[in-house]
Specification:
The chain has 107 residues and is mainly β. It has 1 helix and 5 strands.
Amino acid sequence: PLELKVKFYSAKKSEAYFIFGGQYTWDMASNAKKKPRHNSYALRFATDNFYINTGVGVSLKKRFFRFSIELMNKYSLFDNLVHDGTIYTESIESIKTDIIQLTFSFD
């Protein structure tokens, strides 16, 4: 991911910041290239996607380490579903990913 952190509060041993960025993903286990079998009920999903990342974080600095907490939300920009003309995919308009991520870091 390519992210930009913008501090909006800074004190002697702590800081708070916003996170903005983007991320490209490539799913190596995707079944998008496989041909659908007759009487197959499996949905096929795309191999690549692009996400917009937004979030907030807090960093607490001590003498020998730094502890950080980040709460991020990742929004998918593209449709993950491969529309192959079956009744199972044509009844679905789109499938997009929305990820909420909580991260704890010790440096």
